[in-house]
Design a protein that fits this description.
149 residues, Nucleotidyltransferase, domain 5, five-stranded mixed sheet, two-stranded antiparallel ribbon, 35% helix, elongated
Length: 149
């Protein structure tokens, strides 16, 4: 069965930006059109932290150990994956798509899989571990045709 049939949705995402696309033609000549754009402002970890990492008292007298600093930038990326999973869940319940192709870097794919509801996961027909969010749509179409065709 051809993966990129008419009406198939394609999610192209990274940790900060996502394109929700719909194929309006077929696998041989995909015509991806933007259904939704979503992004988040995710400054570097340095810009999000409030000060030096904390310290905690150890068992000995006057001994203190450094605590691991929270990676706010990574937490925001994981939260963004959860937000995308929620958008997909709402769209599935509206009947917006029956088939989904997910294109994202490997770590984002993992975060999405962890956050995705079963109703959405059951509609995934292909996953591509690539970063394509800054590519023009015609390049995404050509790459999908080559990878999935």
């Amino acid at each position: 069965m051809t993966t990129l049939t008419q009406g198939t949705w394609v999610l192209v995402a990274d940790g900060e930006k996502a394109l929700f696309l719909r194929n309006d033609l077929d696998a041989e000549t995909p015509d991806l059109n933007v259904v939704r754009l979503q992004s988040q402002d995710n400054p570097s970890n340095r810009d999000q932290s409030t000060g030096p990492q904390g310290r905690r008292a150890d068992g000995g007298s006057g001994q203190r150990s450094a605590m691991e600093e929270t990676d706010w930038h990574q937490l925001a990326k994981e939260r963004f994956a959860h937000d995308l999973a929620e958008v997909l869940y709402r769209q599935v319940h509206k009947g917006a798509f029956d088939r989904l192709v997910v294109v994202a870097p490997p770590h984002v794919l993992g975060d999405l899989r962890d956050a995705m509801h079963k109703e959405v996961a059951d509609r995934i027909v292909a996953e591509l571990p690539k970063t394509l969010t800054n590519h023009p749509i015609d390049k995404i179409e050509a790459l999908l045709r080559a990878e999935l065709g």
